[in-house]
Structure prediction request, 928 residues.
Amino acid sequence: MAGPNSNDPPQGSLFARLRDANAEAWQDYTEHPFLMALADGNLSEPAFRHYLIQDFIFLRHFARAYGLAAYKAENLDEIRTASRGLQAIVDVEIGLHESYCTDWGVDSATLEAAPEHNATLAYTRYVLERGMAGDLLDLYVALAPCIIGYGEIGARLLANNRTKLEGNRFAAWIEMYGGEDYQTISADAVRYLDQVGRRRGADSRFPALCRIFAEATRLEAAFWQMGLDAGE
Amino acid sequence: MAGPNSNDPPQGSLFARLRDANAEAWQDYTEHPFLMALADGNLSEPAFRHYLIQDFIFLRHFARAYGLAAYKAENLDEIRTASRGLQAIVDVEIGLHESYCTDWGVDSATLEAAPEHNATLAYTRYVLERGMAGDLLDLYVALAPCIIGYGEIGARLLANNRTKLEGNRFAAWIEMYGGEDYQTISADAVRYLDQVGRRRGADSRFPALCRIFAEATRLEAAFWQMGLDAGE
Amino acid sequence: MAGPNSNDPPQGSLFARLRDANAEAWQDYTEHPFLMALADGNLSEPAFRHYLIQDFIFLRHFARAYGLAAYKAENLDEIRTASRGLQAIVDVEIGLHESYCTDWGVDSATLEAAPEHNATLAYTRYVLERGMAGDLLDLYVALAPCIIGYGEIGARLLANNRTKLEGNRFAAWIEMYGGEDYQTISADAVRYLDQVGRRRGADSRFPALCRIFAEATRLEAAFWQMGLDAGE
Amino acid sequence: MAGPNSNDPPQGSLFARLRDANAEAWQDYTEHPFLMALADGNLSEPAFRHYLIQDFIFLRHFARAYGLAAYKAENLDEIRTASRGLQAIVDVEIGLHESYCTDWGVDSATLEAAPEHNATLAYTRYVLERGMAGDLLDLYVALAPCIIGYGEIGARLLANNRTKLEGNRFAAWIEMYGGEDYQTISADAVRYLDQVGRRRGADSRFPALCRIFAEATRLEAAFWQMGLDAGE
Prediction:
């Protein structure tokens, strides 16, 4: 894929350090065959539909994680940031997701009735459990591979000249996460993670934070794999 | 105070049953001398200011309780309701509170620097701890004396012919909680508590729910008392 | 397998009702091919070793779940029951497990270094997350398929005339869970679940409890399957 | 009171640093008039009885805090330490407390029926809520003023030549906390806090940990004051 670009998080950021300390797992996740197939348009439709449905379930638990962040917050600013994150999911993202699913022929009834796959369950419950057992920093580190990782994936796919946008039915997905709106969300999340980390001694907790980041990254890769497996 | 009026929650509602099972504690709270002094305009300004400052701290933990409700939610509707509650506090109520405090000569710096009184700490942490140890129903029952109680207090003070509005510097407070906007919030909370209760067996858990309601009601009365004591 | 026997939980017990409402999932779990292969001695050693190692990781999170039960307890009896459960795991079961692993050639270093399989992660975090989001009853319902299920499995394997004990290297496992000590633990857990359920309105919460029981049962079956898959 | 003695925690320990950073609050707590009256035998019996009863309620929530520590633990050693703490309370301390209460004419029925005082509620729920919102280090810091503080108080009262043991009906209390058994518990807690702190970046989190320690210390002093007030 493309090398570092202007969207790359600043070198010294906590996110960049966590990512670089888990380079192999990060590559497995961000350059997963699911994404390569998405980029060249060769991903099977059932694989993408399965991913969309599970991602809808994922979002619900992700929203709960932002609720947890509000509970764990120690001042008004932290509560407000968590509240905005929760609101963005339930008032914007879930709606977008539903309409996107409709475009792909997945109606609300199908979304509601879909059983949760083990890959979804493992990932979401890991994040919620780590976030509950640890403090706000542990929680945001567990959320980082998703929020910030999707930004990195979107930007790199968009910048990659092997990515086919024309005639690619997955182009909208790539353009959404590679687009300016999501890139801003992702860059904000990088900065916010640093802020939360400074207050809570991220430097001296780095090995423990690394383990959480590594596990969440691994579970993200398994989430792509679940999609891919469903398409076979 | 005034007897039952049109704002009274329906007789069979979970809230009405909890309130009626704790009639004495409820009366201690909703007819507390602090409120009587507020209604006739004789409350001392230092008492009211102290109350306002502590209520500001209270709101912050109350917001966290709605974050917790989002975490505890079991479906999208429950997450959305909790998210709206959280948002209402951090985007609306806290702002209103700050501007109201300014009117009373309490600036932001004073609000930020104010130490938390034990009455505030006891009440807020009790709600958060009960909500965490129990389920979503336990949490909403712990929140009910405040949300719904303020509605009942506002409506009754407004309807009471012993209440003096003209020339009463506390009239704005009474009109806010007695006014249509807050009455709608309060009535919605009554209905929502029934909905959460139906799903989680409120009837057969009534004695345990009663204990939570009673304790939260007692802690609300102690909160008024804290205000009153500060004015002496 | 053998039909109902004297070890069967009383018909009206909450556990029996949850099990019977999820008959198919329960059968998938308690009559899983892993167990059939264990009973006739044909399970592959790598499969069993993989199971042992993951079960060791499982026990650690299970111990945490009993810690959570102590936190969620509402009176001294409930705290004591949770404390005894926690103590039994960390002071007895984990030690037994380690020595059992040694017999199977799995040393402590291997146990410590073993990465957690997704099936282990999904199951344990689901239990911890349900137990945290819900109340003590939700937590014990999530734990029931394991604690009580192992008792039922042990008793049925021991009573089944197709089970081969002589010359079966897995006989010790069957005799442990089918034996009197574990049967007492299991029967106590059935009674205790009823007690916790009575206090918290289990009857009117039955559909929600059923969903938790069904999911935990399904995740237990997936845990056997993980062992089986490792043996191939 | 007596100056530093051999029981003093090592200068560089996290506990010593937290205590020294909150010197005034620590003195208010550890040299509270309640303790001075206990040391010279002049404490009123009703004051001591009230303290004993509330301390019994306190212990129950303290046990829950150790259950929470087991949930929050990240490895087997941490789970075991939490389990031993929980077990010590429910199997030893609570029993001792009950028999001690009996000596003071407070029977089990009185203990069970006693309503929880706001000072008890505020302190216990603060510890549980901080421990839940933060990580294991936040939890143990919130617990430190009690566990380690009682050790320091016991040792200092015993070493103080103004303390009267002969004919002092409170001598048993002083001798228990000043005695070797409790001094070992307290010294172990100092060391363990360092261990938990090293793993979780205590140094760079010092200001935030200080706030928790200060609040818990203040709430301990309020607990003595509650006893004193009850004796008037």
About this structure: DSSP finds eleven helices and no strands in chain A.
